[in-house]
Amino acid sequence: MDTIFHYDVIVVGAGHAGCEAASAAARMGARTVLITMDMNKIAQMSCNPAVGGIAKGQIVREIDALGGQMGLVTDATAIQFRMLNRSKGPAMWSPRAQCDRIRFIAEWRHRIENTENLDVWQDEVSELLVENGRIAGLRTIWGAEFRAGAVVITAGTFLNGLMHIGKKMVPGGRCAEPASTFLTTALNELGIESLRMKTGTPVRIDARSVHFDEMELQPGENDFHRFSFISEHRPLPQLNCWTCNTNAEVHRILRQGLEDSPLYNGQIQSIGPRYCPSIETKLVTFEGRDSHPLFLEPEGLDTNELYLNGFSSSLPMNVQIEALKQMPCFRDVKVYRPGYAIEYDFFPPTQLHHSLESKKVEGLFFAGQVNGTTGYEEAGGQGIVAGINAALSCNGNERFTLGRDEAYIGVLIDDLVTKGVDEPYRMFTSRAEYRILLRQDNADVRLTPYAERFGIATRERLERFHHKQATIAGMIEAAKSGNLKPSEVNALLESHGSQPLNHGAKLFELIARPELKVEDFSSLQDIPAVASFFAPLSSDNVDREETMEATEILIKYDGYIARERALADKMQRLEDIRIRDRFDYNSLTQLSTEARQKLTAVNPETLAQASRIPGVSPSDISVLLVLLGR
Q1: DSSP per residue over 267-282, as a string?
Q2: Least confident window among 153-157, 299-303, 614-618
């Protein structure tokens, strides 16, 4: 007889989505078990050991604000930090950190194993149990039966994973790790559709064989910026990265190997990520280019292993190595393993509600790459939402969703469930229509109240959050009320190339000038109005630099923020019009044929979601509004 275990929530897969899901559910009080095929690979960074980047960094800040762990783990294991897009406005600033791969896993495992209400079980799932249309649990290949009110599937690239190097094909979910061969079938039997996707990873290089003097140094930054709103500092030494470029000889050798590339010989049929293409795809797509940039990045403090960003490939290993040797910096290169491609099963996300719960089976949630996304950050963002909703569903509570004006995670999930995917989905700032509202600096303002509501936020986080908001409010009020005379500030203004005053002005108006910063006025604290502005920063419980930056952004972009907020509120009216199950779309001949098909397939929650479905035109929305009025 099988051994039976009873839980509230089961999370299948201990990658970035699974860890966030399990951690969130457990901290909400749900008895949770995390099932993984290998406890030594919890939160493994399958590709680059880096977190964040364009738009991805904003997602990590949002995960942190929701009470998640990725930001804290990243800060604790970061070996190089940079704020990207500094030359642009703050809506585009995106934090990124290179992490120590081994320490990242160890930090996550420590947190998982020391979370109350959370157990770990090493096994593989073979069967799902459904009773009366609701998930009831699962069975494993070793004969264990787990009973629960909610199950979260976060299996990553392991479902029928198949790795490719040249013409060689090896089953696996990652290099040297077995694939999961039962779960897709179990889900298909429940009526859940699956398709195939492809991703890849580059060669790993031995640092002792690299001529670093032939490369351009890319140092990091070590200022106050970080991922978590409650991290104090980055404890590890900060390392350098390096850049170089391919050349015509590299390209010649790579092209010679294209006939053996599984991407072009018919071996791989599925679609890979357009925005992170393999080196052979770059050669074919950008045929006229003589070179492509590469980034050499460390994997950790205690290893010689280096990651060659920009050189993902599934070409034969001899082709990869020979091509590398044509670059001066890699003329004596030695590699630990070649790059490879991997195909895997995913489940089209239009089969999900915005809560990431299945439309087919109540209490069954999906998060991460199984939804057709790529990236640790996108996975973690889905994971924490799925974990929160899994815990809520156990008690029959209303599910939690995020709007497109509330978070990049909201944009991500809405894109997935509304539009679906035809390639691995990657977040960009351009996907969000409310970028000024969704900055990395204000993620705590937007989302920490949710963490407080669900009981995920620690007392320390809440105390710091509320104190920070009070400090910012006090500073802005002081800036709006304090008058400055020309004689008090003109010397400062002229020294920064700013127009001097002819009459008095508010400090708020001066900080709003693009050439001036809050810090510029710190030398004028003998003036009462300025002293009143800086006074709230004197508290020991305030991160001075972070608070000053957040205040400055709110002042400088006050008009833009207000205008975008008004636009978002206007669109919210359509979000408030619920239409799920209110129409038989196939019978509405007033709609276009494509609209009838798309609306039937998605069955959108709201009129706003319907308006975002590809193939549904503004005139189709007008028809639905008229019918609703009747």
Answers
A1: S--SB--TTS--HHHH
A2: 614-618
SS3 563: helix
Token duo for residue 510? 């001066």
Q: Are 137 and 148 in contact (CB under 8 A)?
A: yes
**Measured between alpha carbons, how far is 380 from 382 in angstroms, rounded to an integer?**
5
What tens digit of pLDDT does each residue of 75-104 get?
A: 999 999 999 999 999 999 999 999 999 999
Displacement of CA 77 from its chain's centroid (Å): 18
> Residue 244 forms beta bridges with which residues?
294
pLDDT in tens, 217-254: 999 999 999 999 999 889 999 999 999 999 999 999 99
| Residue 135, H or E segment | strand 134-140
C-beta separation of 55 from 94 below 8 A? yes
Cα–Cα distance for residue pair 384/355, rounded to 1 Å: 11
Of all helices (H) and strands (E), which one includes residue 513? none
- Record the pTM: 0.95
Signed CA dihedral, 528, 530, 534, 538: sign only: negative
CA 539, CA 469: separation in Å to the nearest integer?
Answer: 13
What single letter denotes the amino acid at residue 138?
L
| Of 241, 235, 402, the residue nearest 309 (C-alpha) | 241
Q: Tokens 């069967």 appear where?
A: 127
Would you say 359 and 352 are in contact if contact means Cβ atoms under 8 Å apart? yes
Chain mean position to CA 281 = 25
pLDDT of 2 over the 70 cut: no
Q: What CA–CA distance (Å, rounded) separates 40 from 113?
A: 12
The rounded distance, in Å, linking the Cα atoms of 326 and 481 is 65
Q: Return the structure tokens found at 528.
A: 């009462």
Cβ burial, residue 579 (10 Å; 0-12/13-18/19+): buried
Which of 152, 130, 179 lies closest to 12 in space, CA to CA? 152
